[in-house]
Amino acid sequence: MIREPSKPRADWRQRCEEVGFGFHSIDGIYWDETARYRFAAAQIDTLERASAECYRVCMEAATHIIEQNRFAELAIPEEAWSLIRESWEKDAPSLFGRFDFAYTGVGEPKMLEFNADTPTGIVEASVAQWHWLEDMQAELGGNADQFNSIHEKLISQWKWMREGNFIPQSMHFTCVGDHEEDEGNLHYLRDTAMQAGIEPLYVPVEQIGWDEGNDFVDQHGARIDTLFKLYPWEWMWGDEFGKNLRRSTMRVVEPVWKMVLSNKGILPILWELFPDHPNLLPASFEQHKIGGDYVKKPLLSREGGNVELFRGGEVFRANGDYGEEGFVYQQYSPIPNFDGHHATIGAWIVGDEPAGIGVREDATPITMNTSQFVPHFFT
Q1: 357 has which bridge partners?
Q2: Whole-angstrom Cα distance, residue 360 to residue 100?
Q3: Residues 236-284: tens digit of each pLDDT
Q4: CB–CB of 96/206 below 8 Å?
């Protein structure tokens, strides 16, 4: 795993925008092709195996949590428990998720967390960096490849859900309105659904209404039968939306059982069920059970919010609005540091299969919303 300098394409902005990646320069430069990451084929094989294995153990842990009724340890609202069990028992399908790995290129990748409910970074990890690879082939020697079948697998998963009657021919897609990054991710997912033969209707989440005689409705008053949401389940339960969910017939993607996988409370339970697993890190609900350097994580933190890293007498803290529900403690695992560029691997799962990776960098060991995306390739 090597970070090397790279000459940006002259038309890189246009090329990004052609695939709907308009937020490439959000907060300065988010998409950064002045560098690139080179992997060996064996390292890509390792990341693919680790992705599949981590998904397997996470699903086993979810089964355990649901069957043993351990929702309270994850601070999941009690009113959601029955709906979680119901969606799990019905095998409500999942579209995607993203593992965050610490991986230096040597040894086994270590799972930091699983972004299983509302993962972002999908458009840049899929079509944006694939276009970069195609445009850079001559410079890369003409035989470069990329761990990236995200786009094709998204379309295939939508088709599978449609053909299995899990979703209808027409469905709604939602996220927070006027949020450039969320809308960029959502509209890309709408495009993949459209390529799978689905009519993807858009409704900003704040414009979803409730009709006492007609369930949830969109901004035009039309009933919402099935909703894909790029909006966290825990936020939905915290407002009027959640109250109406209990009497709604609306189907939701991602399904409500994803509340179990997306909660960092699964990390201690994973370590309890699979101690000494090569892809897991020791984790606990109690700090004193973690020896040496460690990371304190809120159960429901996003983009590094309120994460604290205790390493060799140093403390790194990220600001945020999380932590009210509680914390977990995970043994610290170093991520690669290339002259101040701390790199985290985002490994995508589509359906239940590994689909590719993206590399994000931050100036600190905590990957936050200030991170930058750097494309990768392997030979």
Answers
A1: 347
A2: 10
A3: 887 778 888 888 999 999 999 999 999 999 999 999 999 999 999 999 9
A4: no
